[in-house]
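Progress against Task 2.4 (sequence-to-structure conversion) is shown through the following example record, which the project officer requested during the mid-term review.
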Amino acid sequence: MSRVVLAANNGEVGGGEVMLLATAQALRDLGVDVQLVGPSTPDGVLDHGARLGFEVTRLPGDRRAYLARLRGWSAGQPGWMWCHGLVPSLATAGRPRRIVHLHQGPARLHAAAVRIARRGAAAVLVPSQSMARTVPGAEVLWNWSAAQPGSPPHRSLHEPVRVGFIGRHSADKGLHVLAGAVRRLEEAQPGRWRLVLAGDDRFVPEDQRRRVAHALDGIDSLTSRLGWCDRAAFFAAVDVAAFPSTWAEPFGLVATEAMSARVPCVVSDAGALPEVLGPAHPWVARAGDVEDLATVVRRCAEASPGDRQAVVERAHARWERYFSPDAGRERVASLVTRLGVLT
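Structure tokens generated for the chain above:
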């Protein structure tokens, strides 16, 4: 039986770790013996993996210690290593039978580390064409997401429009821009707009936390806070989902989840978000532009039921074809077959 060790970049569960777990499940479905390794973190990616039935190896210590321990531990491991992120890729540089999978575009500071990390790799993967332009020679392996329950129909024209955001409450995710847009919309149409927030500001730098908090203070009476909640609960609570990132998103998993749930979705033109939604998607705003975001959100909310339905059905079909678990499993199967991982 083929054996693959998937190495995590972080102990906490972020987008890269979500995809590590999804990749592990796809490989297991293909009959591969899968093991996970990563930093020991309470309720982190390894705990999630153990609950899914995977063998896990916990390496204690901070990031620097994890890098050193992983280098030593991996040297004696048979089979393939699939490194999800720069840290495990750097720790295992030069090892044969290795896949480097980068989930974030490398900062200029990390360019040299990336060159070292990819040495000897059988493949270097990134999640989007947008990110591939920053990692020469990389191939695209689009992310995928689980199916989400369908959203209820749009509310009556006499009820407030619920604009939803889920994720880190950070400036790079554009939450301050969305707060400004909702404020402008409410000023133009009093009583017509509400903001529904899911997620929180854990792991957000202090300067971004203050910037977002200041923007949200201005619309506190219009805001409902769900905290971290089930995706299905979030999508059922909103009429429009907005993902107005200001940084170059390497992918946009939450956008694919909205597509699956048939929830109308407004995104910014940052990074891979327009790539995920596809060239025909009508609701794309300029990143960082409060006025344009307000205009696009209003256009989405006020589209006719027929037009909205056509857009969400087209988005759902795109999710099913490219971003569903079946589509992801097919891409993983094609990759590991080509590389000779399956024996």
